[in-house]
Each structure stands twice: as C-alpha cells, then as structure tokens.
Amino acid sequence: VNWQDDAKRAAALSAVTHVKDGCIVGLGSGTTIAYALKEIGRRIREQHLKILGVPTSYQALLLAVKHHIPLSTLDEHPRLDMALDGADQVDGKLDMIKGMGGALTREKIVASASRLNIIIIDETKLASKLGVNQPVPVEVMPFAASWVEAKLRKLSGKPVLREAARKLGPVVTDNGNFIFDVDFGSITRPQELNMQLKELPGVIETGLFVQMADVVYVGGKTGVRTLKRP
Ligand code: 5RP
Questions:
Q1: What gap in Å lies between CA 9 and CA 5, rounded to an integer?
Q2: Which residue's CA is minimally distant from atom 5 of ligand 1?
C-alpha cells in the first residue's frame, strides 16, 4: 500500500463522520469512495445506523450491496442529505474536474440533488488551475459523437474518444453513451466552458463541477486537511 492509498482511506474515514443515523446519502464512484462505502457499511453493522444510499454508478451499486448499505433511488428520494464523492482535480475555489471513472453524469445529478457535497481526494488532485495535465471528460450520445468531436475542436479542445480496456472499441457508460476526454489546457473560466459544452446537442454532461463542492477532505502524507468553499 503506498502513501496515496493510506491518504485516500484516512480522508474517507474523516468524511464519513458527516453520515448520521437516518441520512439519505448519494454514493459517488471511484477508488477513493470505495473506502468511504466500506466505512459506511462498518458503521451500519456496528452502530446500527439507518442509512439509505443512492448510487451514482454500477460500481457504487455493487460496492453498496457488498457492504450491505440499503439502497434507494432519486425517484423515491429526490432530495438527499448529502453526497460523498471523489474528484480528479480540485482548484482553490473547490471547482472540480470529475469523470475519469466515467460516472460524471449521475454524479452531477446526485450532487445537484444533495444539500451537502463532500469530496474526498488525496493531495495529488489539488491544482491551482483546472485543466492543467487533466482532460475534461464529456459524455456524448453515440449518434452525435463525430459531430460533437468537431465542435469540441472548434472550442479549442483536443478530444480523445475514451477506449475500453477489456473490450474492443469505446467505453460505453452506465447510460449507454461515449466519453471524450478533452484537453483544453489551463481553463480560466470553467463555468463558461461548461455552458458552451452543454449547449451542444448530443452532449449529455461534462466533468466540470463548478460551485458544487461544499467541503473537500484532502488526504496527504502528514494527515487529513479540510477545505471549505469560500
Ligand atoms: C468518477 C469520478 C471519480 O470520483 C474520480 O474519477 C476520482 O476517482 P478516484 O477516487 O478513483 O481517483 O469522477 O466518474
């Protein structure tokens, strides 16, 4: 286990202290959140907490089942007490790039439905500017992929269709779509870029999460720090 795994786990354990008896919790996706789901499962088992989870992906759903976290849906609970999730890059305003795990669309919906958004990262995810050495994942309807790809280039992006690892061809998301990982270089106005991308018919969602994180738990080599949105 390297320091990053320890840091992710420590940050996840701190973040899970927000989860109280009776909470309805959005369950994010990724390797970091996996530690949080295990801890929620432990607390349900040992402290007999009544928690309901709304998963953001098949990964989160299967982990929740594994850790015996009872599940619900946004149909039953359109308003959640909180969401716990990871991120790929976080800047000083707590704006984020998410979606390297491919779950960005459901993650953004669940985050929007949550009163409190808690993000868990290790300190390698912190950046002074979004977009530096980090592409923006954009989920696109397959029917529109080539058209959207051309438009992404017009917006000065360099899109790469995400390829599957153990299947031929592109990644197909939990929603049946493709993902372009788009290098925009340093992003000065993330909200504006997000709006420009979302205006393109065929774009389902972007990995730019602007003014969504309320608190970020950052695991580092020397302990866990907490950042709050200014
Ligand atoms: C998935 C995400 C994840 O939260 C993000 O990719 C971080 O994952 P990890 O904790 O494995 O680094 O946005 O779509």
A1: 6
A2: 87
